[in-house]
Amino acid sequence: MSKLTAKQNIKAIATAIKAEEQSLRARYPILNQQNKIAMVILLVSLCSLFGVATLYYLAVIPSWLCIILAAFITSISHELEHDLIHKQYFSNRPFIHNFMMLTVWLMRPNTVNPWYRRKIHLHHHKVSGTSQDLEERLVGNGIKSPLLRALVITDGLLGLLINTKRFNKEISGFKFFRVFNAGFPIATAYFAILYGVIAYYAVQFVQPFTLPPWGAELLAMADFLMVVLIVPNIIRSTSLNLVTSSMHYYGGVNNLLEQTHVITSRWFLPFQLFCFDFGRTHTIHHFVPNQPFYIRQLISKKIHPIMAQHGVRFNDLQSLKHANHYPVKELSSQQGV
């Protein structure tokens, strides 16, 4: 790490990110068509999701392939939502902007609504690494117990229920029903179907019974949704929650340099696949929030060495043993970029 102050290092990184973006936009003027690019990505993703579901319905592809493809597609919609939260697209055209917000929520129905998430995400940027960071704590950041962490990462609703008592004590202004109701009606329907299907097959295993015709039709619809939307989003959100809760520090954070580390470890590659390489690129977002996700992808290879030079850590997976606490002492060496 250079001998500059934290403020100087932060400025150097942000300046390099912005310069690389400007250079990229100068070389590829099409990147300045930001609204159009976002809409194309959204429509292609949405049509792809419908296409994959249709192929499964027609028995052209097996369930496992449908689940994998849908999980990857919905990870793109998460990146779009992230950018929409920062008003990167159609900020002056509220109808289109809100249409996009609703669409990405429908594609990722196991989340709170994007309008509420905007509030907690912008707050996240202000308090990242502290006990007040509700967004990251909801997905497992700062939890030391591996079992509890796994439960929270895998099931957001269960995690909310488990941590409510602690959040009431530690997070200023936290209200359980404010978070819970932010999922109504889409996330509410998602979890009702998920838990309903699990309960049905559990009861069938213990005491088999026959459903009436209308019940069989509902079950067939639920089974279809499990394959094309619900299980893919379990994979997507679990992958994202694992990566983001692993790369954000919790405690001991004093500045931007200490909020996150970059994850490039090969052990995380399967999870990176279903969260659109989040671990490699999200730290860039912390230094320059108002930047489309595809720009971060395109500049990350050049920016990573600069970040390492100015004090950003890479693959600090040891922090997981200490509930994500930022190390007090500098490591003698960092893992490769």
UniProtKB/TrEMBL annotation:
> Which CDD domains does UniProt cross-reference here?
Membrane-FADS-like
Q: Is DNA repair included in the keywords of this UniProt record?
A: no
- Domain (Fatty acid desaturase): give its ranges: 62-316
Q: Which keywords does this Swiss-Prot/TrEMBL entry list?
A: Membrane, Transmembrane, Transmembrane helix
| Pfam families documented for this protein | FA_desaturase
On whether Transmembrane is a keyword of this UniProt record, the answer is yes
According to the record, the segments passing through the membrane are 61-78, 90-107, 176-202, 214-235
The name this protein goes by in its record: Fatty acid desaturase
Species name for this entry? Pseudoalteromonas lipolytica
